[in-house]
C-alpha cells in the first residue's frame, strides 16, 4: 500500500527540501531558533519501502508535534545524493537533521560537515563508523533480532535441511550484523546446510530474481532466511510461482505486508524493528539538544531490542508498532 501512495512522486529530493523547509531559525546554536522552533530535516533511504517511509513520517509528525516544521527526502542509498541533501539542509538553516545514513563510512564526512555548520545530526537505524560527530546513534539491536529470528527459523526447520540466505546492502552495517547473527545460531545445528548466499540490496524485486536463480540451482531448498521483509516477500513470490509453498521463509523488519504474510502462513515469522519508537526518540533527543545542549540520553550509541513476530502476535502489529 505504501508503494501505491508514493508511486507518483517525481520531485527531486533536494528540491523537495528547498521547497518545504521555510526555517524560522538560524541553527542549533541560535537561541532564537530554540525559542521559535525552526526546521528539522529528515533524510532516509528508499521511501517505496514501508520501513523507511514509516521512519520518515513518524519523525516528521513528532517534530511538528513539538513545534517545528519538518520535511523528509530520500538519498536512495546514494552517498552523493545524501551529501546534496545535507548541503540543502545546511543552506536551509535547519536546526537539526534526522538521518538514516547511506553507508557507515561514506556518511562520516557529510555528518561532520553538518556538525561543523552548527547543525546537530541524529542517526536512526544505521550507525556510522565513528563516534563523537553525531549527537545520537539510535539503532535496533540487530544482533539480538537476528538471533531470535534464527531460533524461530531453526525451530520450524526442525533443525535440519538445506537453506539459502538473502543478504541486504553490502555497505549497510545492519546487513552484515544480521547475517552474522543468523550464522551464530544456525551454525550450532550441523544438519542445517547453507547452500548459497545472495545479496538482494533490501529490494523485493531483487529478492524475487535471486530466489528464482537459487531455486534453479538448488531445487532441494527447504528454507530461506532473509535480511529484511522486502527480500523475503520477493522470495515468497518466486517460490509461489514455482509451486514451492512448502519452503520455510523468515523475514526481518516487521513490515505491514510481512505481518499479513505471517497471518496468512506464507512467512513463518519476522523480526520487528521498533522503528516508530526509534524515530520518535531521535526527534525528542534533537528537541532536547536544541533547547538544552544535551540529548538526555546516557550515551551517543543506543540500541533497542527487537521483537519476534509470529502467528501468535502478528495480528497486533500495525505500522511497526506492536499494540499488545
From TrEMBL:
One Gene Ontology CC term in the entry? cell envelope
Q: Which GO terms describe its molecular function?
A: carbohydrate binding
Places the protein is found: Cell envelope
Q: Which UniProt keywords apply?
A: Signal
Q: What is its main location?
A: other
| Gene3D superfamilies listed in its UniProt record | 3.40.50.2300
Q: Which residues form the Periplasmic binding protein domain?
A: 40-294
PROSITE patterns (alphabetical): PROKAR_LIPOPROTEIN
Question: What family is this protein classified in?
Answer: Belongs to the bacterial solute-binding protein 2 family.
Q: Which PANTHER family match?
A: D-ALLOSE-BINDING PERIPLASMIC PROTEIN-RELATED
Protein name, entry field: Erythritol transport system substrate-binding protein
What is the scientific name of the source organism? Lysinibacter cavernae
Q: What is the lineage of its organism?
A: Bacteria, Bacillati, Actinomycetota, Actinomycetes, Micrococcales
